[in-house]
Amino acid sequence: MTFSGRRGTVQALQEIDLSVAAGEFVALIGPSGCGKSTLLRIIADLQVPSSGTVTVAGKSAAQARLDQEYGFAFQQAGLLDWRTVRANIELPLQLHGVDGDARRRRVSELLGLVGLEDFAEHRPPQLSGGMQQRVAIARALAEKPALLLMDEPFGALDEMTRERMQDELVRITDETGAAVLFVTHSIPEAVFLADRVVVMSPRPGRISQVVEIGLGERNADTREAHEFYAAITTVREALRGRLGKGDGDGDGDGALVDSREAL
Amino acid sequence: MTGLALQPARPAWRRDARLMRGAGLLRVIVFRAGGLVAGLALLGVVWEAYKAWGPTGGAHLLGISVLPRTDDNAMPHLWTIWNVLGQQDAVGSQQTLSFGPSSSGSSGGQTVLGAIAGDCLQTFQWAAVGCVVGLLVGMGLALLLDRSRLIERAALPYLVASQTVPLVALAPILAQWDGSIKIGGWTWSNGTSIELVAAYLAFFPISIGMLRGLRSASAVQNDLFTCTAASWRQTLLRLKLPTSVPHLLPALRLAAAASVVGAIVAEISIGQGAIGAKSGIGTRIWEYSQQSDSARLYASVIAAAVLGLGVTLLVGLFDLVLYRYNRLGARD
């Protein structure tokens, strides 16, 4: 899969040249307003770039969306409260006219995948935030997409739930073989999950550095490994380095949480 | 809602939830009915208390009446109003002070209660037809306005303006078509005019509420449906209609009450002098207002209020049917 986007207007993305291989996990990290989410939305055909092209599985973004080449998981789970967990996961299949039997089978698989078999008939408001997010991920995986686009899906979760969800995501992507493009504000999260961390910087949003993470298979010990901390340091320096090169408008403390969303 | 409940809850959880929902429903019904009775009782107490201790001739300040009179004609005792329900309606007709509609109330042997109940039923039928028509028209309009911002901007001011047209003027205009429009075997009657006025009042809250509801889906939910390549029809059916329910339910209550008001006002403004064979509670109120017995007038007015209340409660049943979609009401 190849993505290359180009958008020349002020305050937006510029000179983005990025490609994600099949099965690869790529994290996008950078301060608020650097266009991470916009990039993801352009790839998902939720926004149209002023110039440049996006190719997903050899197709244009619009065609890829119509063909369900990707699944999207948002920061808010975005579940439909009036539907049960099962019916929420089923939604994409239902919209695409998959027949009832195949639908039930697929939903059962997905419920198993995200560990929510016992909650199939519950409604979203009865679930914790982490569980809701798992439903959203299951829903994004319903059509077996080769690409999963995730926009800070664990951003609203507490630290402990977040780490569990990261473990789950590693397992899920191993099982499904899906490539993931994952937007996050958290350096440890990016390092733990990704094969490659793409560091972005704002005004105009661009890729400042790409850090290869060579941690191999992730497991319970990864978070305590020396290499993990080394990789975190590398990414942190990459984020700071950009600011050192003269982002001279007083924003220079490398803050990862910034209230401005210029895009 | 939030928290760390990652482990499956105990197996009895679901049963508990269902039981709680059942209990909650019962509680809601009891609570509403109890509130209604308590409210009525309080109203009755206030009425009788003012009648007992208020100035008989009312109070005037610089020639302006500031407190109502409390004599038996202005404020009959509640039991007088109650007793009048059992009287023969025909007696009242003979006491008519000025010339009123002669078609209604002349059925000998009928009690006031019977007459009022029959009239309420007739008004209910008109209002119900009006409310259903208003619901359909209002929903259709909301869908149309939702479809295009341009149409919304063009049409919304006229929608608002439509509600400032005085019904008292509208009803007689419609009534002029009585008998003059015939489609197949159906003829435009005064009943049609009344239904139309009721619908005219009912469609407005529906269209405004529904329009809001259609647009109340969150940005994420909208993005989700775009990502899923859902068609307009699918998005409407699976997202927009469900999210419109919490806005539609209160709008429906308003519309139901408005359709009763519309029907009554239309009856009164059409009915003066020339009502058809059927009469509703509006006509009855007007007729009793021409008589000397104020208890009857109060009885008919109270009946109209009860009718409005009953219609609103009836519409409230939709809350129970659609509770699944009612985010504001869903607490399980």
What would you say this structure looks like, in words?
- The complex is a heterodimer of chains A (263) and B (332).
- Chain A is an alpha/beta fold and 263 residues long.
- Helix content of chain A is 36%, strand content 18%.
- Chain A has eight helices and ten strands.
- In chain A, strands 6-7-8-3-9-10 form a six-stranded mixed beta sheet, with helices on both faces. Chain A has a four-stranded antiparallel beta sheet with strand order 2-1-4-5.
- In chain A, a hairpin with a 4-residue loop joins strand 9 (196-201) and strand 10 (206-212).
- The longest helix of chain A has 19 residues, at 226-244.
- Chain A is globular.
- Mean pLDDT of chain A is 82; it is low at 242-263.
- Chain B is mostly helical.
- Helices cover 67% and strands 3% of the residues of chain B.
- Chain B has helices at residues 13-53, 78-84, 89-94, 112-147, 149-162, 167-175, 190-214, 219-227, 232-271, 281-289, 294-321; strands at residues 59-61, 64-67, 182-183, 186-187.
- In chain B, the strands form two sheets. Chain B has a two-stranded antiparallel sheet.
- In chain B, strand 1 and strand 2 form a beta hairpin.
- In chain B, helix 4 packs across helix 7 and helix 10 runs antiparallel to helix 11.
- The longest helix of chain B has 41 residues, at 13-53.
- The radius of gyration of chain B is 25 Å and the shape is globular.
- Chain B starts with 12 loop residues before the first helix and ends in an 11-residue tail after the last helix.
- Chains A and B meet through strand 6, helix 3, helix 5 and helix 6 of A and helix 8 and helix 9 of B.
The helix/strand series of chain B, from N terminus to C terminus, equals: HEEHHHHHEEHHHHH
Radius of gyration of chain A: 18 Å
Query: Overall 3D geometry of chain B?
Result: globular
N/C terminus separation of chain B: 10 Å
User: What is the arithmetic mean of pLDDT of chain A?
Assistant: 82
Largest sheet of chain A: 6 strands, mixed
Low-confidence stretches of chain B: 1-17, 91-107
Strand order of the largest sheet of chain B: 1-2
Could you spell the SSE succession of chain A in H and E letters?
A: EEEHEEHEHHHEHEHEEH
**Quaternary structure classification:** heterodimer
Helix content of chain B: 55-70%
Percent range for β-strand residues of chain B: under 5%
| Greatest interface and its participating residue counts | A-B, 38 and 30 residues
